[in-house]
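Aim 2 progress. For Hemerythrin domain-containing protein, the working sequence is reproduced below.
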Amino acid sequence: MLQTPHQSLARLTEFIETRFHIRHREQLPGIIELCRKVEQVHAGHPDMPVDLADVLQRMRGELEMHMKKEELMLFPMIRFGNGGDFGHPIAVMRSDHDDHSGDISIIESKTCGFQPPIDACRTWRTLYRELNTFVDDLKTHIWLENDVLFPAFQSA
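Predicted structure tokens for this construct:
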């Protein structure tokens, strides 16, 4: 059965929630815990990414608020096609995405592109591997919304 563009977009919102929102909520608590452990054990190491756990904790709160706005406001508008004005909610989401992208840059910088130092312990290496996966997921999430979902609701 052929889907209408509206049905396809509604399904995309469901995919974003089940693939990315759930995954981010699963990923971040463990990553933050690993980061705090590494920061504590290796506090004096010259390559230790200082305050990375604080950046991640702040980001977790901001990302949670962002995902709630999508789940409670924007995605239901898309799914139920209430014909509302999508301009403002999408502008807010794009602004949040810009903030998340800034956080990604900070994370990449603090971790030297997720390259642990030569003498890094297993926990430190695991932290960078999991952080890299999280960042890749978040970049894909942002791309799907900014470049696939949102353009369908913005006037040319």
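Residues 46 and 63 are 30 Å apart (CA to CA). This observation will guide construct design in the next reporting period.
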